[in-house]
Amino acid sequence: MALTKQSRYTFYVLGLLLLSLIAGYLGGQSGSDGGSSQAVASSASSSKAAWIDKIKKAGVLRVGCADAPPTIVVKSDGTCTGPDLIPLQNLADGIGVKVKTTSTTWQNIVAGLQANKYDVAADLDQTVERSLAIRFTHPSWSYSGVFLVERSGGYATSKQILAASKPVAVPQGSTADLALQQAKAKGLRVDNFQNAASAVKAGRASGVFADLPTAVDMATKDKSLGIVIPDPALLVRHVAYGVPATIDSRSMEIINVAIDNSVASGEIDRAFAEAGYRDADSLGDLEIKS
Fold first, then answer.
1. How far is CA 3 from the centre of its chain?
2. pLDDT tens, residue by residue, 13-37
3. Digit-coded pLDDT (tens) for 67-79
């Protein structure tokens, strides 16, 4: 049958519509595939551990640490040792890098992390103030704050120590320092716990306010010093590791796995015990009781 001009036009239009529909369908399929590819790429990008990759590329995990025996001990050469470095060593072993420690002070440890002087700040108390500037990992242990006094000083309670005319010595910028300020106690701020103990020995302070492990270490080494446990408590803290505020979530997850495994295995507890740490219920003759 011969087609009229109108019929040919009609078929022409229908052909164009059909081609358009086919093109649209294929384009939709292509767009859908492209969208899936983009979603996969986005997912892959979000799963990258950029912070960890940077450490692996450098071949070293840089750790900033301040003196707080026995958990962290700063040696004469400026390097650090101690039980609270175990999770970081396990992390380094897991990603195939070395650990390099750098000593600092409690006053400057957060600023050093922000200035990229090291990748992690070790043995750092979790506080709201610090969390405004950096991020915290899962905790590795916790402690309470105690007083360290001379046995001959006549102090047997926290009330007596806080009411004394002499100030309480404390490392400037430490969590113990902040707790004393919150308690509105008179404080003598020094660089580290050793200088704080020296201030007590010199008669310039009534006592030292310190974390329990540090107090145990110092009282064990110096029998003239004893520990007074505050009642009520002035300070209880979880201790973790400070990392840059910009760290990616995947890297944070990897760090936390290393910490959690170190805690769950009992490795940290065994190291604390080997370092001579005692908890508050087993101080024995280290404690001064009223």
1. 84
2. 344 444 444 444 444 444 444 444 4
3. 988 899 999 999 9
If you search the block for the tokens 């979880």, which residue do you land on? 238
For every residue of 222-271, DSSP letters joined together read -TTEEEE--SS-S-EEEEEEEE-TT--HHHHHHHHHHHHHHHHTTHHHHH
Name every residue whose Cβ is closer than 8 Å to that of residue 276 and which is 6 or more positions away in sequence.
70, 216, 217, 220
Cβ contact 142:237 at 8 Å: yes
Question: Per DSSP, what are the bridge partners of residue 25?
Answer: none
**How many C-beta atoms lie closer than 10 Å to residue 249's C-beta?**
11
β-pair type (98-103, 236-243): unpaired
> Residues 268, 125, 65, CA angle at the centre, nearest 5°?
70
DSSP β-ladder status, 236-243 and 135-136: antiparallel
Q: What is the mean pLDDT of residues 30-46?
A: 44
Cα(245)–Cα(166) distance, integer angstroms: 39
Instruction: Out of 17-21, 179-183, 233-237, pick the least confident.
Output: 17-21
The values of phi and psi at residue 130, to 5°, are: -70, -35
Amino acid symbol at 285: D
Mean pLDDT of the chain: 87
81 token code pair: 């040792």
DSSP lists the bridge partners of residue 80 as 74
Q: How many CB atoms lie within 10 A of CB 222?
A: 14
HSE-up (13 A, CA, CB side) for residue 206: 20
Q: Span 122-146, mean pLDDT?
A: 95
286: closest CA among 234, 221, 216, 229? 216
**CB 128, CB 257: distance < 8 Å:** no
Strands 187-190 and 168-171: parallel
Cβ atoms of 61 and 121 closer than 8 Å = no
Per-residue model confidence (pLDDT) at position 279: 87
